[in-house]
C-alpha cells in the first residue's frame, strides 16, 4: 500500500518521464521502510487504525528520507556509489540530476505532508520542518561532514540524534499527534531513543565486516570509546523499552522486536569479528540487549 | 522590513553559528527582491495593505529563490563562481556546505510559508509546491541543464516559463489569493507574462556585453531566432500591460515601470553592441517596449 502511495505521489509531482524515472529510482524498490512502519505501528497502537492521514505522513517521511540519501551520496558529500545494492542516484544518472531529483523529492515530501486533513496540520508541519531543517537532520549532516574524523563519542551520538533520530522523531511524535489530542513529549523522547538505538546497532553491524575503511575507524563510536558507546546503547535501548511499556505500545513493540531479532542474529553470527575489532566480548557487553 | 524578516526566519530555523552564517551569506545582502516586491505591490493594489501574511509569503519566496541560486551555482550544475558580485556560496564555503545550505533554505521557505494564518494556507501551499517542484521550477532547471546547447527558441521560452516564471507566478497568484476570495487564473497568467518578460529582458541584457561565452551563444533566444524571440517578448510585454490595466493594478504598474525604465536605459546605452550581436536595429524591434 505504501509503495503504491509513494508511486502515486511521485506521479502527481512529476510528469517529465526521465525526471520521474530518477525520482522512482531513488525511492523504489523501497528499503526497510523503517519510518513508515513506525507510523503504522503507532497508528494501530493509539487509534486502532492506519488512517489516510497516517498514510500521508508515512509517505512524506519516506520521500524525505530518500532525498537525504540522494544528497548524502553525492560526490561532494559522502561520495557513495552504492545504495541499497544498486548504483546510487548520482552514480546512475550523474551528479546534477541527483541534486535536482533530491530537491524535487524534498518538495514533494512537503506536498504529500500537506495532504493530511487533520486540523493539527500546522503543528505537524512545524514538527516536520524542525526535525528535518537546519536545527535537525541538516545540522546532523553538517556536523558529520564537518568532523573530518576528529570527533569523540559524545559528538557522534549528538550527530546520530540529529541526522538519524530527528526524522524518526517526526515519525513517532507525528503519528502520535495524529492519533491523540495533543503533542506528547513522551513520544518525542521515544523517537529519540529508537533513533539512537537504531543507529548504534548500525554502527555495531558495520563492525561485523572483517575489513574496515579508515573513515569507519575514525567515526565508529564503539571504536572511539567502547564503554561509553555501550553505555549509550544500553541506555537508549532500556529507555525505549520502558517508554513502550508505559504507553502500552504492543504493535510498536512487536515491529521493533522483529528488527532487533534480525540484529541479534547477525551480531551473534559475527561475534568473533566483533570481538576482534573491539577487543572485548561484545555479546557480554550487550547482555541487556542480547 | 523584508530583510529583517528574512534574518529572523534564518535565526529561527538555524542556530549553529557557521551554518547560519552560510545561509545568511546566500540570502543577504538581498538582490533586487523582485519576488517580494511583487507580493508587496499586489497586496497594496488588492487589499490596501501589506499584511503579515503577505510578508510571510514574500519572505518564503525570497528564501526559496536563494536556495535555487545556491544549487544552480554548484559545480555540477552551472558552476558559477560569482553571484551578486561576490563569490557564490560554494565558491566561498565549499561544495557540500552549499548543498546543505540550499537544502536548509528550501525547508525554511516551507517553514515560513506555513506561518501564514489565512485559511487559504492549503491552497497556497499547493500553489507554492506545484510552482517550485518537479512540474515547475525544478523541471525548468532539469530541461535547462539537459539541453546541452541543443535547444530552439520555443524550448528556451518553455524553460523560462518553468525556471523563472513559476516562482513569479507563486508570488503574483499567491499574493492575489491572500487578498481575494478565490484563486484567479488572471493573476496566474499575469505572473507568467511578468516572468517571461523579466527573463527575456535578462537575455537581451546579456547581449550588451561585447564578449559572449560559447554557452551564451548557444542558449540566447535572441541569437537563436531573433524574430521569434522578439515576438515572444513583445507578446508577453503587451499581455502584462493589458492584464494590469484590466485589474487596475497601479502599484504593480509603477513597480514594474521602474524596473523597465532601468532596462530601457541600459539597452539604449548599449544599442550599438546589441545591434552588432543581433545584426538588426534592436531598438526598432523593441518599439512597443522602448
What does the model show?
2 copies of one chain form a homodimer. Chain A is mainly α and 290 residues long. Chain A folds into 2 domains: 1-117, Orthogonal Bundle (Farnesyl Diphosphate Synthase), CATH 1.10.600; 121-290, Farnesyl Diphosphate Synthase (Orthogonal Bundle), CATH 1.10.600. Chain A has 16 helices and 2 strands. Chain A has a two-stranded antiparallel sheet. The longest helix of chain A has 27 residues, at 153-179. The mean pLDDT of chain A is 94. Chains A and B meet through helix 2, helix 6, helix 7 and helix 8 of A and helix 2, helix 6, helix 7 and helix 8 of B.
Key features of this structure:
two-stranded antiparallel ribbon; 290 residues; Farnesyl Diphosphate Synthase; 2 domains; globular; 2 strands; mainly alpha; homodimer
Largest sheet of chain A: 2 strands, antiparallel
Indicate the multimeric state: homodimer
Give me the side-by-side strand order of the main sheet of chain A: 1-2
Number of spatially distinct domains of chain A: 2
Alpha-beta content class of chain A = mainly alpha
Greatest chain-chain contact: A-B, 45 and 45 residues
Share in helix of chain A:
over 70%
What Rg of chain A is obtained from the alpha carbons, in whole angstroms?
A: 19 Å
At CATH's second level, what is the architecture of the largest domain in chain A? Orthogonal Bundle
- Envelope shape of chain A: globular
Number of strands of chain A: 2
SSE succession of chain A: HHHHEEHHHHHHHHHHHH
Name the poorly predicted regions of chain A.
none
Total helix count of chain A?
Answer: 16
Spatial separation of the terminal alpha carbons of chain A: 33 Å
In the CATH scheme, the class of the largest domain in chain A would be: Mainly Alpha
Named CATH topology of the largest domain in chain A: Farnesyl Diphosphate Synthase
Amino acid at each position: 500500500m505504501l509503495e503504491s502511495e509513494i508511486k502515486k505521489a511521485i506521479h502527481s509531482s512529476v510528469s517529465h518521464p526521465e525526471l520521474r524515472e530518477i525520482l522512482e529510482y531513488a525511492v523504489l524498490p523501497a528499503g526497510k521502510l523503517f519510518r513508515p512502519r513506525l507510523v503504522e505501528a503507532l497508528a494501530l497502537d493509539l487509534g486502532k487504525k492506519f488512517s489516510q492521514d497516517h498514510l500521508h505522513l508515512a509517505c512524506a517521511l519516506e520521500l524525505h528520507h530518500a532525498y537525504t540519501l540522494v544528497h548524502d551520496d553525492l560526490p561532494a558529500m559522502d561520495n557513495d556509489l552504492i545504495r541499497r545494492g544498486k548504483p546510487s542516484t548520482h552514480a546512475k544518472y550523474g551528479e546534477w540530476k541527483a541534486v535536482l531529483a533530491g530537491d524535487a523529492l524534498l518538495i514533494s515530501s512537503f506536498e504529500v505532508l500537506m495532504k493530511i486533513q487533520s486540523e493539527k496540520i500546522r503543528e505537524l508541519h512545524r514538527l516536520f520542518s524542525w526535525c528535518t531543517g537546519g536545527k535537525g537532520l541538516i545540522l546532523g549532516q553538517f556536523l558529520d561532514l564537518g568532523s573530518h574524523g576528529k570527533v569523540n563519542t559524545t559528538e557522534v551520538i549528538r550527530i546520530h540524534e540529529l541526522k538519524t533520530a530527528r526524522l524518526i522523531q517526526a515519525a513517532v511524535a507525528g503519528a502520535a499527534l495524529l492519533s491523540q489530542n495533543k503533542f506528547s513529549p513522551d513520544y518525542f523522547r521515544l523517537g529519540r531513543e529508537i533513533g539512537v538505538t537504531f543507529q548504534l546497532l548500525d554502527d555495531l553491524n558495520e563492525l561485523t565486516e572483517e575489513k574496515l575503511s579508515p573513515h569507519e575507524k575514525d567515526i565508529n563510536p564503539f571504536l572511539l570509546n567502547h564503554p561509553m558507546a555501550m553505555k549509550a546503547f544500553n541506555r537508549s535501548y532500556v529507555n525505549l523499552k520502558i517508554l513502550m511499556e508505559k504507553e502500552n505500545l504492543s504493535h510498536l513493540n512487536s515491529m521493533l522486536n522483529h528488527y532487533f531479532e534480525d540484529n541479534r542474529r547477525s551480531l551473534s553470527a559475527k561475534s568473533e569479528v566483533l570481538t576482534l575489532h573491539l577487543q572485548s566480548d561484545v555479546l557480554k557487553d550487550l547482555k541487556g540487549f542480547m
